[in-house]
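Moderator note: this is an archived Q&A kept for reference. The question asked for a predicted structure of one protein chain; the sequence and the answer are reproduced below.
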Amino acid sequence: MKIEAISTDNLKTYAAWDEATKAIIGLQEEWKKLGFASRKVNTELFARFRKSCDEFFAKKAEFFKRMKDELAANLAKKIELCEKAEALKDSTEWKKTTDALIALQRKSGKPLVQW
């Protein structure tokens, strides 16, 4: 079956999942347009087809949940860094504050302030 040839192993981006989803939906539409086979064969083939669809969409749901969790974790880290930086804004201990801000920049992986 064509649907069994669609692999989810290399789907690492939203765009890749969207493209594969379009292919799956296209195959589902094609399936609907085909005529019936004998009842026994048709039932077995549909079960096989449905299983492939269900597995694909379960893996897609896992990917999107994982990405959502990762984005939420990144957001929490960024908010924490912002709060720490904002807490230093009124400090007059220049050297200590500068060192703390530099440490926050290093922790974030990107400069918070461009010189």
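Archived answer notes: The mean pLDDT is 89.
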